[in-house]
Amino acid sequence: MRLSDGGRLIAFALLTASVAQPGFAAKFNDLEHTRIDYPRPADLPSDAALEAAGAVIGRIDIDIRNIFDESDQRESNKLYRLADRLHIRTKPATIRAQLQFASGEKYQARKLAETERALRLLTFIYDARVVPVHYADGKVDIKVITKDVWTLSPGISFGRSGGSNSTKFNLEEENFLGWGKTVQVSRGSTVDRTSNTVALTDPNVFGSHWTSAVSYADSSDGSQRAALVQHPFYSLDTTWSAKALGLSFDRTVSRYNLGNIVDQFNDNQSAYELSGGLSNGYINGWTRRLTFGVRYDRNIFLPTPGTSTPTPPSLMPPDRTLSYPFIGFDMLQDKYKKVGDENEIGRTEDLYFGSDISGEIGLSNSVFGANHDAVMLAAKALRGLDLPVEQQLFLSSDFSTRLEQGHARNLIADAAAKYYWRWHENWLLYAGLSGTTTYMLDPDMQLLLGGDNGLRGYPLRFESGTSRALFTVEQRFFTDWYPYRLVRVGGAIFADVGRTWGSGVVGNSDPGLLKDVGFGLRIGNTRSGLGNVLHVDLAFPLSNIAGIKQVQFLVQTMQSF
């Protein structure tokens, strides 16, 4: 969640709206929508027929479209044309680096669909279509169409949730010179710290499938240095992966009770990982992967200097060093579906309706430099269900712990269910239920619930405990309003119910079951890479607790509705 992007989105909309003409857009499935809709030629054989005939891929044409369509009279005013001129369009080589197929290979429709999904994940791409356009002499010509968004973000941004503000002064370009690289220089302030950050990210090093990222942050409570180089499993057919990660992070950790800081301490963390993976690729609708590597994770805890409430020594977390080789597996089913107006507004969404199961085991031992001998365990499972009558259900769970002397420590188990029902063309009912339980949680960690993670009517980090549950129901409204052809507009009416159980390391902050209701505006971003959906909400707590404001105002930019 990027709270600071909300102000940037508003600034971009106001800037371009200053000379634009207002209007209404068509419905999501109409051709004049900002999504790319490129119909498959009617005389082209079906995918099944092409594959059965042993067709191979011929020419690959890359069509990169600008932010605004100047052939459309509604998008041909001076300011829109100026935005297109100032914007450096994505280079064809940047798009080619994401392709899951090449000329001369056998035609497989699933690889075209997978390439579409990979392109839509890029922040500088609004939408993508990969379609066969011509077939002759056993060769299929492919057209790859993408639509750029505005990616340069200078200025000031603001966000608010849980009664706390965040601000950011930044200069960020997410598609530097059209090569897909991200360059960021920023100064931001949150409830935890003020940071000056420099970051570089490259999703296709020298046009390859290698990725890299480096960042440095000088913060009010320490500093952070991070570097990553990896060759991921970028497709279902990828047969190997590699990863090298280094992280150094000095920060002040605050522990909360009823939304207030109780105590603080410093955590000096160093973490490294060298890992890889092997796979047989795509077989009968599934991809199976074996992963392996070594990790090193050291945390040194110190009293925070200069605080008025120093951490009592009895509650100071003990230093912890975990160092271990590990091995894991991942079983991933190829089952996706394209939808729209569900978690975002006016964008093509790729929802997962398959099964994904992964697990990992490692052995931390003094032989590898650890001060904790432990068996490290982790597992995760996802399942999507496409139900009758426009209903969908998504289930997820994950589990992690370490076994020390036969006993579980720092055990964290999560489970969640998300339900969607489109009972009207432009209305969607959403319900979400999630729960977390812990056992022998490390004292530097807290299980929290508040305005920043689900209970929108309450201060951030309000409740703490050893277990928590949250239920949310939300009626989402999607409209055809498309002001200035810049943003899509929707709304929501919601209710949240949640609580924690158990006493955390700094005491019991369980005021019981908390409830809130509210409503808000949703603004879907169609022209820039500054975040997907801006939330502007008013939330009203229903529990009568002294000191809690009767109205909470929230401004957040999130990846979903």
**How many E-type strands?**
27
Structure class: mainly beta
Give the count of structural domains: 2
Question: How widely separated are the two ends?
Answer: 12 Å
Ranges where pLDDT stays below 50 over 5 or more residues in a row are 1-33
CATH architecture grouping of the largest domain: Beta Barrel
Helix content: under 10%
Shape: globular
Question: Rounded to an integer, what's the Rg over CA atoms?
Answer: 25 Å
Count of DSSP helices? 5
Give average pLDDT, whole number: 86
Beta strand %: over 45%
CATH class term of the largest domain: Mainly Beta
CATH topology of the largest domain: Porin
Largest sheet: 20 strands, antiparallel
